[in-house]
Amino acid sequence: MSWLESLTLTSPSGFWNPLLWLAFLIIFAVIGYIIYSRGNRSYKPGTEQVKPFISGNAVDDVELIRVRASDIYWGLIEAMKGYYAVLMRMHTGDVRDYILWYLGVGAIILFILVGGV
After folding, report:
1. What's the mean per-residue pLDDT of the chain?
2. 105 touches 97 (CB < 8 A)
3. Do the beta carbons of residue 17 and residue 9 sit within 8 Å?
C-alpha cells in the first residue's frame, strides 16, 4: 500500500482523499484569483461609485428605500395576526423560559413515542 492509498478513505459509496481535495482547492483558488485579477481596477470604495442609484435618480437617504423583513412578510403576518399575538405574549426574551418550553415539549413527544399514545 502506497502512502497515497493510506490517506484514502474508501467506503461502499465512494472514496475521500484529503490530498485530492487540497488539489481541487488550489486549482479553484488559482481560477478565482485569475478572475479577480481581471476585474475592473477603476472601482474606488468610499466614492460616488458606491452611492445607490435607482432608475436614474440619485438617492439621498438609503433608509427611506430600504425594504425591511417586516415589509416583505407583512401579508403573512397580517393574515396570521391572531397566531402571532399569542406567540408575542409568550415571548419573554428569557432563555430559561425557552429551555423550559423545549424540555416540556420534548417530554410530551417522548411520552407519546414511548407511551404509544
Report:
1. 87
2. no
3. yes
Cβ atoms of residues 82 and 88 within 8 Å: no
Calpha distance 55→65 (Å, rounded): 13
DSSP string, 69-102: HHHHTHHHHHHTHHHHHHHHHH----HHHHHHHH
**Integer distance in angstroms from the first to the last C-alpha of the chain?**
56
Give the integer Cα–Cα distance in Å for 73 and 53: 25
**pLDDT tens digits, 15-51:** 888 999 999 999 999 999 999 999 888 888 888 888 7
CB count in 10 Å sphere of residue 98? 13
Closest CA to 18 of 28, 7, 30, 6: 7
Residues in a beta bridge with 10: 15
Can you say whether residue 22 is alpha, beta or left, with left for phi > 0 and alpha for psi between -120 and 50 degrees? Answer: alpha
Q: Which residue has the cell 436614474?
A: 56
